[in-house]
Amino acid sequence: MNFVKESVNQTPIVDTVFSIVAKAKEAKAKVGSENVVDATIGSLYDEEGTLVALDSVFSSLKNLDNKVLAAYAASFTGNPDFRQKVYDWVLNGNSHLEHEVIATPGGTGAVGMTLQECLDEGQTVVLPEIAWGSYALMAQMHNLNVEKYSLFEEDHFNLNSFKSACKNVMEKQNRLVIVINDPCHNPTGYSLSEDEWKEVISFLNECSKTHAVVLLNDIAYIDFSSRQEKAKEYFAQFDQIEKNFVVIVAFSLSKSMTSYGLRCGAAIVLGQEKEAVQQVKIVFEKDARATWSNINNGAMATFVDVLDNHKDAYDKERLHYVNLLKERGDIFVKEAKEVGLKHYPYKEGFFVTLSMDNETRDKFHEALMENNIFTVKVNLGIRVAICSLSVEKTKGLAKKMKDILDTV
Ligand code: PLP
């Protein structure tokens, strides 16, 4: 007997992160944490191995009036000052398109809402072949099919594969919904160049002559790009989109404010014409009301307060960790090159991913754990979370991994 939707696969979620996090914890208790490399956790950790919670953010939150924390938001799309602040902060003056902002519970809310509301059941979404696992789960929950594009051709974005995935989908349906997780792609750390973005937009403009195009640009890690404001300049290229084309930018305060548990983010809808943007906004607003109703008022108020009143402190704190991430990434990538450990082209962000087929990956992952090195398996690779690995633990890791890889 079925008590739930028949369209949803009932196999339980296999959590590839938390089960390994638990094993790493066990190993630390057994052999001492100094003898364990725990590169599993996908949140930002400091050099002492504790979660980073930016002071500028959390002292702002704690100074809010209780009534602000208690209150419902002003509307189902979020508070007007929050929406304006998100638009200004994220686009940073680089976009001149018609726009609307809808507050969401994290970037997850913005991505999930887009997949659910921009595609009908049975239609297909275009996803990267190596990707954050939630995209595929969301597709499954909303009864969508998935067409994947391979991410790289040598060390560059695989435009050919991207184009052919889009073309395959266009043969089957009248709407094209594509996910591009950029900059700081999870889990490879790749960021498209300006030229690559130009080519993507120009191709999608062609597609929009016959199909409605929705580009979901998941920017979860953007504020930890080592290029900072420069990493936002590609938004200017969205100004070239045609009228049958909308962009939805999924923004996450979890990363930008290190406030994962406050569950706040936004969907920024961009388009050439007001009507297109309003159509998406109206449906998203209804979806918001029907699903989560309201967004955490304290989280929205904190974001506004931090950027209005504590921006210098916030920038200073964030930049410290941006530099630390860069230091960890540089060490790992340099040493990997020296010992010939292959990884996907890493530019910036929370993760570096080693490239290998899935059979080797499975054996390698086990062998690493036998040597007290804990990582996360992803499609066609092993994710090394430099976001939670200290500089000290990063040093020498590539060689250790290469030596183990040579034995499997
Ligand atoms: N997008 C990517 C690529 C992510 O890795 C994550 C979180 O890990 C998110 C979006 C959404 O995170 P949140 O819902 O906490 O904002």
How does this model look, in words?
With 408 residues, this protein is of the alpha/beta class. The protein has 2 domains: 18-54 and 313-405, Aspartate Aminotransferase, domain 1 (Alpha-Beta Complex), CATH 3.90.1150; 73-309, 3-Layer(aba) Sandwich (Aspartate Aminotransferase, domain 2). It is 44% helix and 16% strand. Strand 7, helix 8 and strand 8 form a beta-alpha-beta unit. The longest helix is centred in the last third of the chain and has 29 residues, at 311-339. Pyridoxal-5'-phosphate binds next to helix 5.
Structure summary:
The protein has 15 helices and 14 strands. It is α/β, with parallel strands linked by helices and 408 residues long. Strands 2-10-9-8-7-3-4 form a seven-stranded mixed sheet, with helices on both faces. Strands 11-14-13 form a three-stranded antiparallel sheet, with helices on one face.
CATH architecture assignment of the largest domain: 3-Layer(aba) Sandwich
User: Regions with pLDDT < 50 over 5+ consecutive residues?
Assistant: none
Average pLDDT metric: 96
Number of strands: 14
- What shape does the CA trace take? globular
Class by helix and strand content? Answer: alpha/beta
- Can you list the strand order of the major beta sheet? 2-10-9-8-7-3-4
Helix content: 40-55%
The CATH superfamily label of the largest domain reads Type I PLP-dependent aspartate aminotransferase-like (Major domain)
Largest sheet, in brief, is: 7 strands, mixed
